[in-house]
């Protein structure tokens, strides 16, 4: 009996020790773990600016040969007008006016009327001729339409400014006329006042 008791007690101790160890292990495995710290966000490098060579390049406009020749001839004619005298320009205008059905001559006449250094300049007529070229389907006129469009843009603004200047001049003349009329009225009133007899001042008797 004592032998069995001595044998049983060590076994109980071992069993209790194992139970305690298992319980401790289970507690440590089920304990909530602290969340892992998230790594700090690394700063991002700024985006590099786009390379200028990578940007789209607008292709150059290639004009047909007929258009290039027509424009070069028209610009050369305009350059030649700078060396003409007033009498030569007047004679040239008379010759061109007789053949306005030709698109080349229409452009030359428009360039001649666009001149402002002589009395033959007439921006309104030049604008009308340039607009006619823009509306034409004639191949010779179509070749000149890039220059005609530029003339229309410039002459439209010039005609507008000349109209504004003319209205201002008319208003100035009207204001001068009103001022002159007012001065005449004031002068007549002054003459009337001077023609009136002098008002006598009554003298009182001394006491």
How would you summarize the topology of this molecule?
Elements: H1 2-30, H2 65-81, H3 86-97, H4 103-113, H5 123-135, H6 139-195
Helix pairs in contact: 2-4, 2-6, 3-4, 4-5, 4-6, 5-6
What does this molecule look like?
- The chain is an all-alpha fold and 207 residues long.
- The chain contains six helices and no strands.
- The termini are far apart.
- The model is unreliable at 1-12 and 18-42 (pLDDT under 50).
> Could you describe the largest sheet, including whether it forms a barrel?
none
Please provide the count of β strands: 0
Estimate the global geometry from the Cα principal axes.
elongated
**Which parts are unreliable, with pLDDT below 50 for 5 consecutive residues or more?**
1-12, 18-42
Content of β-strand: under 5%
Order of helices and strands: HHHHHH
Provide key terms for this protein.
67% helix, mainly alpha, disordered N terminus, single chain, 207 residues
Summarize the structure.
The chain has 207 residues and is an all-alpha fold. It is built from six helices and no strands. α2 (65-81) runs parallel beside α4 (103-113), α2 packs parallel to α6 (139-195) and α3 (86-97) packs antiparallel against α4.
